[in-house]
């Protein structure tokens, strides 16, 4: 087992302790072989573990997590995706923190989540080993990309534990959440259809 995999396993264990599910749905079953064909890449082990444990949904009404499409027809909505053609052509999107300028290409980003403050959460997919993909965040507050040398699970765990300095996303309300909860998209949609607020 590589050091990256060990860190990812520890991070997922930490997330399992820190994060609880609100509704009855917890986790998604994904045909990873089919997803790999759609995206022409495999996915990090910590991400696959998160999807199995929690799935597509939202942490504390703040951080949304996507799952991959398993067919080309599904590549829309809240699935993992590349940046849009519009974003790739917009020079204002291609702004990076000073330490990262000139080091990365927007075409190499793969979106796995976002925030209620309209931040974009990605992997930089240049390494052939997905377990070595760092996280890139486009902050709407700073209007630039910052890179974090860790996987998705470690990034999320540090958010849940308020261990990032400086804080990597635009809204800092998650810092005050004592017992963060996860709500699956299916349960959120079902609750709103009945007129209930699932977060109450």
Shape: globular
Rounded to the nearest angstrom, the distance between the terminal CA atoms is: 42 Å
Instruction: Supply Rg.
Output: 16 Å
**Percentage of helical residues?**
25-40%
Give the biggest sheet: 9 strands, mixed
What proportion of the residues form beta strands (DSSP E)?
15-25%
Number of strands: 9
The helix-strand sequence is HEHHEEEHEEEEHEH
CATH class assignment: Alpha Beta
Protein model, in words:
The protein is of the alpha+beta class and 200 residues long. The chain has a single domain, classed as SMI1/KNR4-like, CATH 3.40.1580. 28% of the residues lie in helices and 18% in strands. It is built from six helices and nine strands. Strands 1, 2, 3, 4, 5, 6, 7, 8 and 9 form a nine-stranded mixed β-sheet that branches. Strand 2 (57-59) and strand 3 form a beta hairpin. Helix 1 (3-18) runs parallel beside helix 3 (45-53) and helix 1 (3-18) packs parallel to helix 5. The longest helix is centred in the N-terminal third of the chain and has 16 residues, at 3-18. The protein is globular. The protein starts with a helix and ends in a 7-residue tail after the last helix. The model has no long low-confidence stretch (mean pLDDT 93).
Features:
about 200 residues, alpha+beta, SMI1/KNR4-like, nine-stranded mixed sheet, 6 helices, 9 strands, about 30% helix, about 20% strand, globular
How are the SSEs placed, and which strands pair?
Blueprint: H1 3-18, E1 20-21, H2 32-39, H3 45-53, E2 57-59, E3 63-65, E4 81-82, H4 85-89, E5 109-115, E6 120-124, E7 135-139, E8 144-148, H5 152-160, E9 181-184, H6 185-193
Parallel strand pairs: 1-9
Antiparallel strand pairs: 2-3, 2-9, 3-5, 4-5, 5-6, 6-7, 7-8
